[in-house]
Amino acid sequence: MEVILIPIDQIVEDPDQPRRGYDEEQLHGLAESIRRYGVLNPITVRPLPDGQTYQIVTGERRWRAAMMAGLHEIPCIVKSIDHETATLEQLTENLQREDLAPIDKARALKLLKEQRRLTNRELAQMLGLSERTITIWLGLLELPEEIGEQVIATSGRPPAGSITVSHTRSLMELEDPELQARVATKIREEELTSDETAALVRTLREEPERAEEILERPAEEVIQKTPPLTGPALQVRQFRRYLEGLDIGSLHPSHLPPLEQELEELLEVIAEQLQAIRAELE
What we know:
Layout: E1 4-7, E2 11-12, H1 24-37, E3 43-47, E4 54-58, H2 60-68, E5 73-78, H3 83-95, H4 102-116, H5 120-127, H6 131-139, H7 145-148, H8 165-171, H9 177-189, H10 194-206, H11 211-216, H12 219-222, H13 231-244, H14 256-281
Parallel strand pairs: 2-4, 3-5
Antiparallel strand pairs: 1-5, 3-4
Helix pairs in contact: 1-2, 3-4, 4-6, 5-6, 8-10
């Protein structure tokens, strides 16, 4: 595609851009790189109806850094696309960024879902994700906003005391926003893992009349301890966590058909083994 130089003051940001915040230190670092080497990768823009300005589709971070660097023009690829298509391109690009805040990702997914009137399944198919992943991300928007804003994106081991998407799965099991907020506070202050949070929430749900007492005491004193997993159960849990962390969107298309077949066969094996286990336990 043709790359053209467009004056920076003729370019505007998209107010519906999924990404809401930018790390100032990283922006300054990028600006310094742009001062030295210029903008190496053009941004993508779309012309607005006034015929004079352009709206950013992808590359807002580079645009902001270019302004910091004092540039007057920036290389651009111009695409004549509608707002919905631009939103899809933004979302697709941002889904590849590990540092995009989960709440921003959830808001973008909701916007796209509503604009195109999609079901969770249709949205998942469009983006190459599982329906379960879409449901988990959209579930963040059902939490109190102050909790959703604190959920961090993780790559590897999260910092102690962080609230991750894994923590929020347990928080969503509590219907009372006040309880959700108090458990979120315990996650941060007592540095609870996602497993410890799940155990705490399970205790709260099983003994709701003791909620105040449970939340006043250190979590380690009230969590209903379960024996550590060993043997086949431990191996199954490890494989489950592997599947939960599998990023379908990052896989090569050639990997998808055989993976789909293996997972379908796995479902059959799981059903058979569950039936056998239940028969033994009766």
